[in-house]
Structures are given as structure tokens and as C-alpha cells.
């Protein structure tokens, strides 16, 4: 789909009396080394360098040529009129030219000879003469064929390394077998036709006969990698043979015989094909061979019989360096052919000065590094040309983005409007046939009144203007509306270059000739085209067609790209002709020359829209003019800013810059000012602006109106995709413009979640629900939208907006006015939308009742009752519509749930209709419904609620029926005690019966406290006391026991039982109270007070009951035992802290010095062993041992069946390891930190006990013991307070938390390490350490 467009042309005329006979490229200086002579009248050979001068074209010969050397070259062979240059090659690294002459001499010319070296030296000679020569692509081998039918290999130092004889025995090297695939001989032609003929044997077998125009020449061509070389020569004077030799000189294959094969040969650098010429009786074909010598396709050169006998008698072929263009050279012209989808297109024909009858094919040489730069010419002159591949496409701005693409194929122009018909190449919607070969094509630019309908075709004979009316429902064929020949002045005796539309009425044409470049305008009016004006302008490189003139991008006028990388408006340029003002100033500059350029004006959202094409665009603001340019080496620029360095193609739309990369991605850049252009990362999985495409795909055209992007694959086939970026951009724009129907259809066609219609602008959508219904109209479409609603905000998840610009003012105000508060936050998004639709549809119930039912059903949870009530109302007015509504609601919801819901409405007729839409057996529901019909209303309602499991409502019906006995059974069956108590709250007798049943139920359920309260309410104190005892409520139990009243022995037994249970739970204070109050055991009560460190209460009861004998036996003994126990506990705490804190410091030091060794536990003894993830290629070893990164996470990164996975069993095993905290493991530090935390919690608990112990010791005169206990407690508390910050890393933990929130989880191996440390060494909050209040009597 790409055409070749000329971007550079320079002309060199020959020296007086001496024509150009050879040329080659110097890649270092990008100049051409030319050879002049020898001729039969002058044996002098002159070597000159044609140097390009920036910004100048059409120079005289002396201005551009630098003399290198000259010498006489007499021909040593008597049968040659004069010597001839067979091959000219230039070595840029040594500034050396090598000339191979037909007479046999090999001459080296050194531009800068070293001492002892000659400037001109004959380094070798072949006495028999040389028929062909070619240097290998790596410039290390020279292949030479001699007139004696030998093949020689010479090194760079011209040492002969191989000498091979070309003999007839070589033809036996290849035994070709053709099965005739695709041939007419293998096609079925009837049952009896050629029944006995072998289908693999063709009717005519080529013998390799020579063409009558064969030049008897020999051609050598190397493969692109230099591994093989092909030689096309005549064998035994009767047959053309292509021999393929390896680099070592061994014969690899020989071509099959082909009649009319000529001497031209070129091996495609990609290596798969060799191209040559076959001359038949009525046509000339370019034929292809494989390396094994077999034919592999061909194409015709489309020459008439007269052309074959005139300028088509001598033909040469040559592939360019990247194998994309095949040059076919004739006597007076050269043609450039490209292949796409197995069809060869004639893209350009370069005319040369008229050739004499004896002149050979045109001189042609490709640039060795730049694929579309070459030099072409003849003895009458030489041209340096450069082309670029460009798509001749129509506008890309809605609504005129019809996807018009024009493809050049010789005299044909293939037109396709991809928005109307997606026709695969080489076919096309329409073919335009012209009188001569096409040079360039232009389609009307954006903003014109007939945008996308006018096509200007520039060819060697003039300009044809076509009109294509695409706006019609059935577009007609393009029609020719005007033709103009180029004026016959000297300006136009030149090479046609490019053509663009300046506006809807003016064409701009760039021509290049000997006198320089000229720019000419042509005016179209009333279906005619006339010449307007011309201007000579040096330095022109390319014409830039106008870009999109739409909402945010206005078109500049057609611009001229200059050599100094500046862009100038054509309107300001031609004002010089019209005499208005001088040449306009530079508007924008790029960093370098870009062959493919588009200039647009970004106006922003607040800028006014252009009224029509060209209004106010001649004086453009520099700050908003953007020139997008792509260089041949993949650099994409916006003005002087580099956007990408791996770009292969790009397009511009009103909303996006779209480009493809060498990583096989297509990226979408939101249009903005140059500084705000944001290139998306290579993340097609998470970013809508980036998408993976087929390898090597390039952009052809884009149609934002239908969200389509057309790409061409390397083979030439087309693929149309609908990228999410284009689709979502169109949907968002439609929502902003309140075109909800277009947005809805786009979501429906491209499978986009329809929640975006609301989530993109929620407040606006809620205000425009009525407008949405009016635009969408179809009931089915509204149902589809409602049925896809869900709570997720897709604008923040799957379709997150990627434009960083601020939300427009309307949306900002709408969101600011949105309701806030807890009530709004609890409101479901789905329910809110459904309620809004119900409110709007209420007035349209006649036409949109189905939508109302859908809105009810689609709520979360579904409001089936409301939907069925709407149907019930409709059933009274129109039973037929009600039946359809029931079918619809049964389609939306589970019919079983609908059956239960309808039954719950107590509408048996509606229930029956719903049941008939289900798969239920009528024998299941008909008897049931019939029994309900025969029952009373209350009994029927009770039966329905009991059937549906609505037991509370069924209980209410039983209460209304007044069947108490049945009701009590129902209460016990379904545990409805609370509801029954509420119903009988004013009926005391019934209430007590139900409450007793409830108390028994609570006792069975082990809810003893509630059961005891119920029994006590019923004045059943004995049962209440037992329930309280089971609930360990000793006060309530003893209270009820005294109210029974229980006999004294039973009461004592109950008291002892309660006291013993309290002692087991270490509630010593309560146990002592029971012994004192109910058992009158002062000694036991005092002992329990001392065990709980309540020494003040113990001393109080001893004094109260005058049991002074207990002071020594109970009180003092309890103080000594408590002091010993507490001292031992505090000593253990201190020793634990002194042991664990240094160990924590040691572990953290090791982790800081070598984190990986710390995680691995140093299992290798300090030896540096790499992670086996990088050593083991199989998942077996990875699964078995894991790696340093996966040892403690069980995440090996493999999906093999034998891989270790994080199963629940493995997690439990890991948790046990963590709980043990084995020394040396990764969990040790975590275990120690948790241990210190538990110790601090224990110290906080015993602080109050120590304080009571110290006071008791002082009251009993044990001052030193009190001092010792207090000192130990103070020391432990101080040690705990001092270690909290270090152990729990309070400051570092807070800082790390901030970093993690900002940075998140790292990637790769660092992420695995981060996860391991985070999971296995999680910190808890530092526990507080309570201060211990010292007794002032003990203060030192």
C-alpha cells in the first residue's frame, strides 16, 4: 500500500567529449565516485568524486566534481574497440578505488597514498580478459570471471585463492525434479483427456535457448551474507546457465534450463531469490530462481512489442540493500518495482536522456547502506535520487475519514475506501488507468468542502483530477473531471517530483531539473485545472500535505520542507510571486531532515474552531504548531523533541499520534502541546495506549469514526483492527457530546463494558437519563444497558483515563455538586441508575414497561416483587401484554425465584402464569395451588409463608388464627421464641408458657446466663441457681440458692464448689470472699487473699475477727512466698532480655552486611554459590530446591506439575517453623521480637502485684525484702523501656511504611527478596511499658 515518493534529486552532466561509464558510492562521505571514459576516441580514464553540497541542487559539472586521478588505459585485447570498466568499487576505510577492466587489468587508485605507494597501480592482470567481476558484501573477496571461462577468487590484497573452470560438466551437478505444482499440465481437464500422460511432465520442456537480444555478457552477484556467489554466463555458446558457488569455490547448484534467459542477474540480499530477465516472443518477464537452481515465480514488465524492440533490448536488474525494491534498468529509463501480497507493483519510472541505438542499459548503483538512495544515468548524465515509502491516504479526521488509499502500479492507480469496502491488495475497489506512468498522488486535505473526494494524479504527461463522491449511500466510480498538461517552458523540461493540495482549489507541484527546483501552483475551477504561477526555490526536499482541520487540530497550509530542517507555509512563499510581502519567516524547526512529515496546529480545548479550510492559517502561532517527522532510521520527532527512536510508521488523528515500533507495538499518544506529549510505556497488558501487533506491521490509514486502524504486514496483506484506545476515545467523546446512541452502539459492537457510559461522567449521565432513553429508543437496547450494570467503577479500573489533562469545567462542577454523606455512600450505583430510569420511564409505561421490569430485576439485589407487581397491574388491563411481560421477566431472572416471589405476593393466578413459563412439572405445583385456593385466606397465607421458609410471617398468621397449641409446636420447631414473646407480651399466661419453653431451649443450648434470668423471672430459683452455677456467676447462684431456700449443708456444698472453681481460674479474691461470707472460714480466706497479693484485705479480716495467730502463720508466710516467687520471675525476665537483645543486634548486623546469606542461613559455609535459578534449565531442579529468593516463599516461578506450590499444608508447616523460631533460621529474629513483646506484656501485668507486695512487706516490718523486690522491679522496667525503640525499630518502621506506600513492591529478584522479608519478618506495634511507682519510704 506504500508508494515511492522522491525526496531528493540532483543532476550531473558529463564532461565535454567524455561520458560517464561507471559509478559507485563512498558511504563515508555519501558521495558518488564517477569514472569517465575510456571511449574508442579517447583512451583516457578520469576518476572524479561527485560531492553533495547542502541546500544546492542542479549544479554545473565543475561545481560538484572533485578530481581524483586520470590515466591512459589502452586495450590489450585486439577484438575490443576500447577498454571497458567491468566493475568500480570504492573502499571507504582506505580511500581506495578498485577498477576491473575488460582488458584484464585490475587497477587501484589511492586518494591518499602512503610513502612508498603509487597513486595509480595495476595490481593484477588477466591475459585472457575479464568478462565479469563483483566484490563480496564484506569487501573481503573479489570474484572474477575470465574470457577463458574460469572463476577466480581474490582477496583484499589481490591474492588469487581459488581458480575454478566453468565447464559443461557443471550441468550435471543439479538433478532438478518438478512435480508441476500450479502448472496447467497438472490441472484436471476431463476424464479422457491426456489419460496416459504423466502429469509431472510438461508439454514443452525449456532447452535454455538464447535470446536474440542476448549481449553475450557474464554477470556475477553475491548473496547478502557473502556465503554464496552466482554467475550467469553462456555455456558452450548455446545456453544461459546460472551457477551458484560457495565462498570456498565449490559448485553448489546449476539453474534449470530457461528459454530466452538473458545475462542480467541480481541476488536478493535476503537470500531467497535470484532475479534475471527472460525474453519471450510477446513479453519480457523478470524470472526468479532459488539457490538450488529451480524457478520460483516471475512477473511481466508490461512492455509492448515496439517497446521491446526499441528501449527494451538491453535490460539489467538490481536489488536494493534491504530487498524491498527491484530496479529494472532499460536503455533510457529505470523502473522501481516492489512486491506486496505476491504481486509486483511498478512504483516509479525514471526517464533518462534519449539513448542511441548502440547504448547499453542505464547505469544504476544502489547505496550500500541507505536502501532507497541510488545513482542512475547514462553516458549523457547522472542523477542522484532518494525515495521514501509513503502511503497516499485521505483525511483521518471525522467525519471525512473514509480511509481512502491510493496505490501506484505503473499506469494504474488502485483506489480503495476502507471505510466502505475492505478490499485486500493487490485488488482494489476501483482502478484508474492513465496514459503514462504515475509519479505521485494527492487526496484532498482535511477541512475542504469536498474532503476525501478529489484525487490529483501527477504523471509524466500532466495532472489528472478525479472526483469520487463517497458521501453517497452507494458510492460511484471515480470520474475524471479535468486534465492539464504541464507547460512547455524550460521549467518543466525536468523530473516530476511531488504533488499536494494546498486547499480545495489549488494544487502545488514540485519539479526538479538541471536549473534547480521549481514550485508551481495550479488552480481548479468549474471542473477545470489551469496553470497559475511558478517559482524557483533551492533546497526543497519534500512537500507536506495538510493535516487534520477539526476540533482540536487545525491544518497549516501545504508546507515545504527545507534542507535546513525548517518548515515554511506555501501561502507565504507564493506571496512573493503575487507581490504582497516577502518570503514568510520560519514557523517550526525539526532536529533533522525527516522524509515523512505531517504538520498540524494544536489549538487545545479552549481554542476556537476553524470555520473553513485555510481561514486564519497563514499566520500560525509558533507555540502551537507541531511538525511530526520520522527519519529513515526510526527516530520520531515532534518539532525538535525526540519522541521515539524505534518507530517504523506513524499517523496523526484529531485525538492521537499513532505510531508503530520495532518491538511490534502500536502506541497512541494523546494530542497535546509538544512538551506535554506523553509516550506510553511498553505495557500492552495494562495500558490501553499500547497494543501488541504482528511482527513488522506498519500503519496504512486510520478511521476514527469507526475506530478502525488498517495495517499492512511484511508479506503485503492487510489487517484491520479496532484498538481500545480509539474505541474508548470515541466513546468518551460521544458521552461528552451527549451522543449516547453512538456511544452505546460503539460499546455494543466492540464489546466494551457499558458501565463506562455512566462511569465516565456520572453526574452528567444521571442528569441525561431522559436524553439517553430518547436517543437509544429501542427497548431491547435499553434492556441491554440495564442488564450489564454492575457496582465496579470501570473508569477507575479497566478503562482508566490516560489523559493527564484536567477534567473539563462542567464535569468538575457536576462532581462537586454530587451528594455526599453516609447515605449517599451506602447507595448502590446500580440501584441509583435503575431508580433514575424508573423515574423517567414512569411517564412512558405504555411503551417502556419492559424496561421498567428490567430496571427492577437488575437492581442489587433484584427487586422481583416490584417487577411482578407491575405485571399484576398490567394483567388487569391487557392480559396479552402481561403474558409477554412474564416471559421477559422469566428470561431475566431465575424462574424458580420468580415462582417463590409471586407465591409470596399471595397472587395465585400470577404464580400459575409464572409456573407455566418454568420447567416445573404441573403435577408438582397444580395440586399445591389448588389446595391453597380451597383454604381460607389466613390458612392459605400461613401455608405459603411456611412453604417459602418465611417462618416469622407464618407465625403471625398462626397468631391471627388463634391456634395456641399449634403455635407452641411451631415455635419449638423453628425456634421463634423471641417473636412469640413479642406477640404475647400482653397475655401473661401465654407469655409464661412460652418463656418457660424458651428457658429450656437456652439451657439446652448452654446459654446458661440467659436461661438463669428466664427462670428467675418465672420465680424458679432452684433452676436459676443451677444455671448461674454453670455460667460461673457465683454471686447470682448463691443469691438464688438463699431464695429457694436451700438447706444449710447444700448451701455450704454449693459455696465450696463455687470457691474451688474460682481458685482454678486464679480468682483468689472472689474465692476468699465466699469462704469468708458463706463458710465463715477466716484462715482459708486469709490464705487466698495472700495468694492473690491482696495483703491489705488479709490483714483487715484477721484484725476484724481477732485471729492474731494468723499473722505469723498465714500473713508472714504468704509475704515470704510471694516475695520469693516475684523475685524469681523478675530475675528470669532480666536474664531473658540480656540474652535476646544482643542476639537481635547480631542478626540485624548480618542481614545488613549480606541479605542473601542471611535469608539462606549460610548453608554453604560462606562459599559464593550462585542462585540455582540461573543454572537449572528444568523445572525439576527448581521445584526441588528452590533458590535463595524462593526458599522461604515457596514461589519457584514455575508452572510445572512437580513444582512446589503454596498449599494449605505447606503454609501450616511454614507457620510451625515460624512459631518455633529455630536458631539460625530466617524466622529467628521474628521469634525473638515476639518473645520480648510478650515479656513486656507480662511485666506490665505483674507491676500492680509487686506494688501490693512491697506495701505488705513494709507493713509487716520486712523493709529489706521490700527494697529488694522493688529494686528488681525497677531494674526490669528500666531494661524494658530502654530496649523498646531498638527491638521494635519504631522510627525505622514508620519511615519504611512511608517508602512502601510510595514505591510499592519492586520487580524481579528484588521483589522476591522484598516479599520474603516482608512476610517472614513482619513487625508488630511496639507495646507500651507502664511506669512503676516506687514507695517513698524505700527511696534512697
Protein architecture, described:
There is one protein chain. The protein has 1340 residues and is of the alpha+beta class. The protein is 34% helix and 25% strand. The chain is built from 38 helices and 56 strands. The strands form 14 sheets. It has a 5-stranded antiparallel beta sheet, with no helix packed on it. A 4-stranded antiparallel beta sheet has the order 1-28-27-26, with no helix packed on it. Strand 37 and strand 38 form a beta hairpin. Helix 26 (1034-1043) runs antiparallel to helix 27 and helix 35 runs antiparallel to helix 36. The protein starts with a strand and ends in a 20-residue tail after the last helix. The model is unreliable at 55-62, 489-493, 546-559, 570-586, 606-623, 806-825, 1161-1205 and 1292-1304 (pLDDT under 50).
Secondary structure topology:
Blueprint: E1 3-12, E2 20-26, E3 31-36, E4 44-50, H1 61-64, E5 65-72, E6 85-91, E7 96-101, E8 105-110, E9 120-125, E10 130-135, E11 141-146, E12 150-155, E13 160-165, E14 219-222, E15 228-235, E16 239-246, E17 251-254, E18 261-267, E19 274-279, E20 284-289, E21 295-300, H2 305-309, E22 316-319, E23 325-329, E24 333-340, E25 343-351, E26 363-366, E27 373-378, E28 381-390, E29 392-393, E30 404-409, E31 412-417, E32 430-433, E33 438-443, E34 454-459, E35 462-467, E36 479-484, E37 495-501, E38 506-513, E39 516-525, E40 528-536, E41 540-544, E42 553-555, E43 559-562, E44 566-569, H3 570-578, E45 588-589, E46 596-602, E47 625-630, E48 636-638, E49 641-644, E50 647-652, E51 656-661, E52 665-670, E53 690-692, E54 698-703, E55 708-712, E56 718-721, H4 724-736, H5 740-749, H6 756-759, H7 762-767, H8 769-776, H9 779-787, H10 809-816, H11 822-826, H12 829-841, H13 845-857, H14 864-877, H15 879-892, H16 895-904, H17 908-916, H18 922-934, H19 937-948, H20 951-961, H21 964-974, H22 977-983, H23 988-1004, H24 1008-1017, ...
Antiparallel strand pairs: 1-28, 2-3, 3-4, 4-5, 6-7, 7-8, 8-9, 10-11, 11-12, 12-13, 14-15, 15-16, 16-17, 18-19, 19-20, 20-21, 22-23, 23-24, 24-25, 26-27, 27-28, 29-30, 30-31, 31-32, 33-34, 34-35, 35-36, 37-38, 38-39, 39-40, 41-43, 42-46, 43-44, 44-45, 46-47, 47-48, 48-49, 50-51, 51-52, 52-53, ...
Helix pairs in contact: 4-5, 9-13, 12-13, 13-14, 13-15, 14-15, 16-17, 17-18, 18-19, 19-20, 20-21, 22-23, 23-24, 24-25, 25-26, 26-27, 27-28, 28-29, 29-30, 29-31, 30-31, 31-35, 31-36, 35-36
